[in-house]
Amino acid sequence: MKKLLILFFILFFTSVSYSEDKKYAYFAGGCFWCMEAAFDKIDGVSDVVSGYSGGTKVNPTYEEVLRGRTGHIETVKITYDPKVISYLELLKNFWIHMMERASFAIKAIAILQ
């Protein structure tokens, strides 16, 4: 969790590009397919692309990243219209999504124990 918070602060201060028509934001943490599905449904988001951030290996495979062998973290690049949705609203959606996933994981762990 500590690594995720550090990554969040790094991405928060470096992940917004400025343009009048569209902006880009990057969010990392958890499953990028889950994040992609959540952001695809938001008005003002025109594109969501999955990929990796950080790491030491060029062009890692999904399996290498999943097993923690490369130092990468799953990331989504979001293209959005700032006239329709703000970066702050995207950030709010990201944290709501992350909390839902954390809540689900905690319940699943409790059931399995």
Describe, in plain words, how this protein is organized in 3D.
- The protein has 113 residues and is α+β, with helices and mostly antiparallel strands.
- It has one domain: Peptide methionine sulphoxide reductase MsrA (Peptide Methionine Sulfoxide Reductase, Chain A, 2-Layer Sandwich), CATH 3.30.1060.
- The protein is built from four helices and three strands; from the N terminus they run αβαβαβα.
- The chain has helices at residues 2-14, 32-40, 62-66, 87-112; strands at 23-28, 45-54, 72-80.
- Strands 1-3-2 form a three-stranded antiparallel sheet.
- The longest helix has 26 residues, at 87-112.
The CATH class name reads Alpha Beta
Number of domains: 1
CATH superfamily: Peptide methionine sulphoxide reductase MsrA
Distance between the termini: 21 Å
Would you give the CATH topology?
A: Peptide Methionine Sulfoxide Reductase, Chain A
